[in-house]
Amino acid sequence: MATNPRVLSARIAEAVEAELVGGELHPQLEGALFGPKPASVREGNGGLLVTDVPRGSAAWETGLRPGDIVTHVNRQTMQDLKSLSHMVQANPHHLTLQMRRGASSVYILIR
Hints:
The chain is 14% helix and 29% strand. It is of the alpha+beta class. Strands 1, 2, 3, 4, 5, 6 and 7 form a seven-stranded antiparallel β-sheet that branches.
């Protein structure tokens, strides 16, 4: 009985963080969860989706809402979760968030 060799190939990719907890970034973002912008949302380049914000949390009181898309922090385009983390760590005492909420633009200043 002849054996038939089989070839198995696999592609190994770098793991990508799927979610970022706002409270790990800044006290006023406590309660918010951030994730990548869904491919179905075509507004501009970049952006991060606010996936959850419990009512009454610090992030809720700051003005974030589920479904917001954070497009810029301190005028820098947000491409991924790493860029959000970097911008908040670089200047935690003065943050300006520019977001899309439906058809509106929303700006939040955090000091």
